[in-house]
Amino acid sequence: MNYQQALSLNDLINILKIQHKNIDFSIYGKGSPGAANLDSICIIGEPSTITEDDEEIYPEYITTLGLEFWYSDELLEDVVMTALNQKNNASNEEIHLAIRHYSEHDDFLDLI
């Protein structure tokens, strides 16, 4: 996994399922993450930085491409691992549903 790498949400979930993370990252994409599907392309990017004035600064290439912040790596890892702990054979569709549920409700979806 590399910064500025483009991949589908499906591929990202597959990477997170095997816990193959080698960098801290944020996920960015076009439009709202709630409208994304497993085929939606997202960009692996550096996390934003916070200034002393609490202003959030995104990487320049993210703003140049007009991308929106979708998810932090910690949120995705927590949701993916929770889903797999609940149902070890959870499909990527179920995991994506769990990600969307968490981002909307700040609560884990019960897959059992």
Question: Strands, helices and their partners?
Answer:
Elements: E1 6-8, H1 9-17, E2 26-29, E3 41-45, E4 49-50, E5 56-57, H2 60-64, E6 68-72, H3 73-86, H4 92-105
Antiparallel strand pairs: 1-3, 2-3, 2-6, 4-5
Descriptive keywords:
112 residues; 4-stranded antiparallel beta sheet; 6 strands; 4 helices; 19% strand; alpha+beta; globular
Q: Could you characterize what this model shows?
A:
The protein is an alpha+beta fold. It has one domain. It is built from 4 helices and 6 strands; from the N terminus they run βαββββαβαα. The strands form 2 sheets. The protein has a 4-stranded antiparallel sheet with strand order 1-3-2-6. Helix 1 packs across helix 4 and helix 3 crosses helix 4. The longest helix has 14 residues. The protein is globular and about 45 Å long. The N and C termini lie far apart (31 Å).
